[in-house]
Every structure is written in structure tokens, then in C-alpha cells.
Amino acid sequence: MRRPMSGPGSLQQGNIVARIDTLLGAMTLAEKIGQLNMAAGSGAVSGPGERVALEEGVRAGHIGSVLNVWGTQQVHALQRLAVENSRLRIPLLVGLDVLHGHRTIFPIPLAEAGLLDEGLWERSAAAAAAEAAADGINLTFAPMLDVSRDPRWGRIAESPGEDPYIAARFAVAKTRGFQGADLREAARVAATAKHLCAYGAVTAGREYAAVDTSMLSVHETYLPPFAAAVGAGVAAIMPAFTDLAGVPLTAHGELLENWLRARQAFAGVVISDYNAVSELINHGVAGDIVEAAALALRAGVDIDMAAGGYSRGLEQALQRGLISMAQLDRSVRRVLELKERLGLFAHPFARGESNPPPESRTLARELARRSIVLLTHRQPVLPLAPGLRRLGLIGPLAEDSAQMLGPWAASGSPREPVSVRAGLAAALPGCRIDCLEGYPLSDDGEPAIGAVEELCQEAELVILCLGEAAVMSGEAASRSHLGLPGGQRAIAEAALASGTPVVALLSSGRPLVVPWLIERAHAVLATWFLGIEAGHAVADVLTGQHNPSGKLTVSWPRAVGQLPIFYAQRPSGRPSRSDERFSSCYLDVPFTPQFHFGHGLSYSRFELQQLECSPLTVRSGGSFTVSVAVENQSDTAGETVVFLFVRDLVASVAQPVLLLKGWQRISLGARERGALRWNIPVEALRFIGRDLEPTLEPGRFEIHVGHSAASVERLACTIELSA
Ligand code: GLC
Q1: pTM of the model
Q2: Pairing state between β 390-394 and 461-467
Q3: Which residue ranges form the domains of the chain, and what is each CATH number?
Q4: Residue 158 CA: which ligand 1 atom is closest?
Q5: What atom of ligand 1 comes closest to residue 192's alpha carbon?
Q6: Is the CB–ligand 1 distance for residue 135 below 6 Å?
Q7: Model confidence over 108-147: pLDDT tens digits?
Q8: Measured between alpha carbons, how far is residue 426 from residues 58, 109, 538, 547 in Å?
Q9: How far apart, in whole angstroms, are the C-alpha atoms of residue 358 and residue 23?
Q10: Among candidate residues 692, 695, 665, the one with its CA nearest the CA of residue 682
């Protein structure tokens, strides 16, 4: 079943199909291969040599799309060559990684996921799309949907975290935000769901390493976000660089053809990752570029990103009978259809004509402050006292605003972000703020212990601004140790020993393993990389302008040795128990994470009460309701998230001890009491059976609601699914 293209109706579609058929019939082999060739520029201003090569290729019809070129002038110059100078006047796809903002950089996805607010996720994608489109971009390589359970892997920063249900909701919101209802809108861009799939399960968290997970886990955990993206109409899919049990995703016909196109009815375009077609040779599954090109095309990869593999190999592959003209035409047709969906034939210059939208700084600040997670608040030092007169800021991230952009900020300007110091100075005009780097992020100096001790003696309170450089997460940024880089611990220890109250801010692209800091600081906050409004957002939370409401969508490890760590573990025959040596645990650390999935404190105090499930016996095709009361037992208004988990107690395939099936946010005034209600279809209790198909089996199910995956924060009841 081919998914109908967007447009007013079948007449429009009929015209489009006819136009594509005509084009296809007129194309030479070189022009067909050209439509499958995506060439790379190098940013807003390409070098002279590169620009000439791009221009020649576009003019000759040997390049059908480009990436990493943005800015109206640059893009329109190339688009003009395509639609006015090339023989068939076919417009270009113009792609860029717009992961978390374009000009206005928002928090990294791992931070934004913790908002658990689908409306804001969609709004930020729409704002990013409008800014990118104003720069001539019509395709983004986002959202990244890799379920990530190993923070050694730097790309966890780009992910929505460890849970497939959250990743699926994130996928839908981002696809809708980027693409809108009609891709012909000049302020929208085609989205690319990436990287299909299981890239987050690389061996030992090492970037690009082999992936050897089971097909059961692939269907249970790694594919659902992509199914959700396809269901939301995502225009493109990008396979991962990695293999899956020896079959590189770039050549994985079983997943790309059988699961994605046949089972999910995906009718969009599959775009390889950067140079991945050529890397099939390194994987050891292709002897040369001809075989690599043939493998990828046959598997269903339509566009070769930046490898030149299709340009160099497809003609020979055809001559050697490794591919058919029908397979080639199939991919060319999909590319032309996407260009039609984007309205590029009719209006190739629409994107970039309009003035850029006003900066989304207000939205950036809202997203940033809602992303901050209050991890601990052991001593009531927050919100900062309004009469604070002397504040010490210590650490390499107190003033280094460029880091706040995070690892994927293609077009963001490093000068723009508001630093922590600037944000606090603006929020606390009457307070003297002394700032000391203490130790450089570049890790090439000596910790300034004496100066730290002196500053702490003078200050009423010290804020440690610690963490990673932006380049220490994102792509090609795996770390084997997850502590603070360099000598930061030395300056933190000096501050902790001073006796002055210490609040620690952790800016990073991943959870950091710092139990010594967590146990001793008065409060610790995960401030991730918050984008251009970082400093104001931090100040909003520290001063109480915003009552912290961010949550962890990843389990926070106590030690690297626990990795991969995630809440949805299968119980094993000897389920983890702290009081049983012969159970699934460690000798040297508790088996639990430092902070559970869903953790995030507030200045308020919320309690869950009166969990009810009804009916207690359900049948296939039916549904049940879950309700819970939530009480704010503090004098501070605030927001919290309540998660709904399910546990299938007995099934033909061992099921995880918990699986997320929903969440709701609730705002409550001081001492206010509210109620939440879910109506859950019984179908939501399905699991992936041994045959890899969705399966529903009668039996007992526990329903848990809680503030996190921590057992102490959950209420539970049991329902029965009758045969
Ligand atoms: C990179 C990444 C991918 C990105 C692409 C284009 O290597 O793996 O996520 O979209 O190349 O920049």
C-alpha cells in the first residue's frame, strides 16, 4: 500500500505522478544516479574549490541534493543552477542537522526530553524549522531517535533517552513540528528519523562499534520510535552507521525493505549516513565500491550521503547485473516524490525568500529552564535567598558560554549564549558575584586550590559550574570514564571542604559519575547544555523564578561498571535484591542507579494517593481506567510528572520489571490536591512474542504509578486479563 502524498486530492496526485513519470522517462542513466547523490558543502561559506565542484555537479545533473550548505545566498545560487541551468531543471534537496534549533539554539535533546511535554517538543521543532527554512534548508537530519542506555556513548546527548515509549512520543512531536500539515509550507522542512536502528547499543559504548543485540530487543526497544515516526508521516529515514549482528544497517534489506517499507508502509526516502555506503567495504561485506553501491541500493537506500559511492559504482553495478534498472528507478522516483511533496518544483526558492522569523529566545528560555533537573537538595539552600550579598562562582563552565550550545549546533553562534555568570548577575543585581575558573576545560593547567579556598571564605554560598566541554559528547565522543574531566574534582573538593554551602551545576551531554559530589554538595542540578538562554534559565531555577520540573529520561549510574543501566530490565531467575547475595547484584555498589529513570526534584513536595484501577478484570478489545490523587504538601506551587508503568507478571517471553505506558504533567498550587486519570486500551498490554509479533496473553498485570521508576515512589495495583 503506497501512502498517498500530501496535496489537495487525487487530481493533484495524478498530475504529480504523471510529471514524475515523464521526468523519469527523459532521464539519462547519469541523471538518474545524480538524483541519488547527496554532496557535502562545508557550512554557510564553502571553500572556493568545493564550491566549484558542487556547482559543476549540480549543473551537470550529477548532484540531486546537498548537505551542510545554508544561507539564502549560497543555497539559492546552487538551486538556480539546478532549476535554470541543468538539462531537466530538477530542484535540489538541501539538508542540515537541525537537531535542537538552528540560529536559536535550544537545549540538547537529552535535556529537552526531560520536559515530558509533547506540545513544547513540537513547538521547538517548528521554530527550528522556520529558522532553517529561512536559510534555504528544506530537509533536516532529525529527530534522532536512538534509544540510549549507555552514557559512555557520546550520542546519548542527541537522544531522547532510554525509553522507547518516550522516544516514540518524541518522534511524533518532532515530526509534526518540523513538517507541519503540508510540506509545501515555506516554513517547514522534511524530517529524517535517525539512526535506524540500535546504534545506541554499540559494544562497550564505543562509537561506531559493532551492535549484537537480539532481534527481540530490536522489535521491543529500538524499532518502536521509528514506527511512530513513520506513522506521523516522517519524510525520510536514515540507517545507522553500525551493523546489527553482522549486517550493516546500510545494507539491511530485512529491516529497510521488509519491516520499514512492507510492514510500516513507509513511502518516503532512505538517506544513508555520511559516507556509510562506501564504509560497507570497511564492514567487510563489500569487496569494492561497485558491490557496496549495489548492496545499499538493493537494501533500499535511496540517497548516498557524501560517499560518491552511487556515482562511482551504480553504472558498473547495472552492467554487472548486480542491480536492475527497476531498482534504480524506484529510488529515483522516491526522491522526485519528496521534492514534489516539498513543493520544490513549483517554488524552488520559497525557502529563503522570507525574512527570518524573530529569534525564539523566549521559547529557548522556557525550554531551558524546564530542562534543568534538580538531582539533590540535601540542605534547603535553594531557592537562593533574595538578600544574598556575596556569591562565589567556581568552575570552567561559569563563563564559557560557547559550551552551552552543546555538540550539534551547526549554525548557532558561539558568541550568543548567556553564560551562567551573566544570567545570575542579571537576576541578582544587588549581589556581588566573584567568579573563578579554578581549572580549565582544556585540562592543561593546575587547579587553583588556594584561590578557590580564598573565594569560598568570602562567599555566603558557592555555585560550582562543572562538567564537560561540548565536544566531549555528541558524535565521535565516547568516554570510558564518566567522572568530571581533568582537575575539576580538585577544585570541587576544595570548595566542599571550605564549609561554605555548595550548589553544584553539572553541564554535560550525559549523566556523570560523581557520587562523591552528590553525597556532599548541598544541592546538585543537571544543567546539560541548555542553548542560548542557558544563564537566564539557570538563574530562573536557582532564584525560584521557575520551580524545577525537569526529569531524567535516562537512569543515572553510580559507576561505569553498571553500564548499560536502565529501568526496564528483565527480572532474571534471581531478581536483584539488596539483601540477597545470590541475586543479580554487585559486591561493590548497589545494583540501583544513583538516580532512577524519571527522577527530578522540585521545591514543592508532591504525594501520590488513592491509586485505583477499574475494572480489575479486563478482556481483549476492552480498556481500563487508572486514577490517582496528587497532593502538593508544600507552600510552593509547582509542577510534577506522574508516570504510569505496567508489569506483565507471567508471559511466554520474560517481560521487564516495568514498562512505561504513559505519563501526565500536573501543576498544583500550594497545598492543592488534584487527580489524574488514564484510560488504557487492553492492546497496550501487548508485548513482542517469540515470533517477533505483537502478542497479548491472559494473566495478571501490575499497574504502577509513580514519580520515577524508583519503587519507593510508586503505588501499584493488579488487574487480570481474562482469556
Ligand atoms: C553524521 C551523523 C548523522 C548526521 C550526518 C550528516 O556523521 O551520523 O547523524 O545527520 O552525519 O551530518
Answers
A1: 0.97
A2: parallel
A3: 94-338 (3.20.20.300), 364-562 (3.40.50.1700), 606-721 (2.60.40.10)
A4: 9
A5: 10
A6: no
A7: 999 999 999 999 999 999 999 999 999 999 999 999 999 9
A8: 50, 27, 11, 18
A9: 39
A10: 695
